[in-house]
Automatic annotation (TrEMBL):
<dbReference type="Pfam" id="PF00126">
    <property type="entry name" value="HTH_1"/>
</dbReference>
<dbReference type="InterPro" id="IPR036390">
    <property type="entry name" value="WH_DNA-bd_sf"/>
</dbReference>
<dbReference type="InterPro" id="IPR000847">
    <property type="entry name" value="LysR_HTH_N"/>
</dbReference>
<dbReference type="GO" id="GO:0003700">
    <property type="term" value="F:DNA-binding transcription factor activity"/>
</dbReference>
<keyword id="KW-0238">DNA-binding</keyword>
<dbReference type="InterPro" id="IPR050176">
    <property type="entry name" value="LTTR"/>
</dbReference>
<dbReference type="InterPro" id="IPR005119">
    <property type="entry name" value="LysR_subst-bd"/>
</dbReference>
<protein>
    <submittedName>
        <fullName>LysR family transcriptional regulator</fullName>
    </submittedName>
</protein>
<dbReference type="GO" id="GO:0003677">
    <property type="term" value="F:DNA binding"/>
</dbReference>
<comment type="similarity">
    <text>Belongs to the LysR transcriptional regulatory family.</text>
</comment>
<dbReference type="InterPro" id="IPR036388">
    <property type="entry name" value="WH-like_DNA-bd_sf"/>
</dbReference>
<feature type="domain" description="HTH lysR-type">
    <location>
        <begin position="6"/>
        <end position="63"/>
    </location>
</feature>
<keyword id="KW-0804">Transcription</keyword>
<dbReference type="Pfam" id="PF03466">
    <property type="entry name" value="LysR_substrate"/>
</dbReference>
<keyword id="KW-0805">Transcription regulation</keyword>
Length: 300
């Protein structure tokens, strides 16, 4: 039996298209024409020897074989990228201090730490998950080398905008539990303790729309916020990144809720010329964010 050798370039196109929800978007992201992407997907099905796509309405969905292929494609690409990193950065040693917003603690942090540790086992990472204000204070004072934080209009000297993400109203999975705008009681909100960028954005949007509101639940942590929202105590506002399965993003305009603004995501560095260790970790973060970017997000 002839051994099948999958083309990594084709697999990267395949996973990018699935992640973005559109192979036309994948073509733009990868700098290829749509016809070239179509040819790659056809090649992948030929290599697999079985259909990996099936029609679903006007679009395409993965077959069972396609779901299996996607899982293996991610593993193959991760190993390829780790091998390249290890070869080029095998001498990296030292330590790096990273800070992340709570939204990325469960979605982004394990991936970053795992990939970096496998490629650079001699480097020690200290990671801190915290609120925006603490992250910015720590990177400014030199107690963090890198910090990934939501933009709060504070301009730091060694920062870059990496992505712009639409904010969303978030409610429980059960649509019958979602509060609707009416002429009766004020809309209940679940929010983090102040200061909170998204709490302020929610209140401003409701005030501009002339919608009465009340703070029904205040939490010092994101875990408490998810629990309250899932229980139907009130609506909250976050981005589509890191939402647990107990809540859902409410579509724009649904239930009469006002449209929310775009939120910038910035990567802050403590030094203008970071160490090779810090620079390498920053590149891994940026790549992971591209893979994680939700629908509607725009790379800066």
């Amino acid at each position: 039996m002839r051994r099948t050798i999958f083309d990594l370039d084709v697999l990267r196109t395949f996973t990018t298209g699935v992640d973005l929800g559109s192979f036309a978007r994948a073509a733009d992201r990868l700098g290829r024409s749509t016809s070239a992407v179509s040819a790659q997907l056809k090649k992948l099905e030929q290599q697999a020897g079985t259909p990996i796509f099936q029609k679903s309405g006007r679009g395409l969905a993965l077959t069972d074989a396609g779901e299996t292929m996607l899982a293996y494609a991610r593993r193959l690409l991760d190993l390829n990228d780790e091998a390249a990193s290890a070869i080029h950065g095998i001498e990296l040693e030292g330590w790096v201090r990273l800070g992340l917003q709570e939204d990325f603690g469960e979605t982004l942090l394990p991936r970053i730490l795992g990939q970096f540790a496998r490629a650079h086992p001699k480097v020690r990472i200290e990671a801190r998950v915290a609120r925006n204000s603490e992250l910015l204070e720590r990177v400014t004072s030199g107690r963090l080398d890198l910090a990934l934080a939501w933009n709060n209009s504070v301009l730091l000297p060694n920062s870059e905008r990496v992505m712009e993400i639409p904010m969303s109203w978030v409610g429980p999975v059960n649509p019958d539990m979602v509060w609707r705008i009416s002429g009766g009681e004020p809309l209940p909100l679940a929010a983090l303790e102040a200061p909170c960028l998204m709490r302020t954005a929610a209140i401003n949007a409701l005030d501009r729309a002339g919608i009465a509101w009340r703070l029904a639940f205040i939490s010092p942590s994101l875990g408490g916020l998810w629990a309250a929202t899932a229980a139907g105590l009130g609506l909250t506002i976050r981005t589509p990144i890191g939402l647990p399965g107990t809540v859902r993003a409410i579509m724009p305009g649904e239930n009469g809720l006002p449209v929310l603004p775009i939120l910038g995501l910035d990567l802050h560095r403590a030094d203008a010329e970071p160490s090779p260790v810090t620079a390498r970790l920053a590149s891994i973060i940026l790549q992971a964010l591209q893979d994680l970017s939700p629908m509607g997000a725009k790379a800066a």
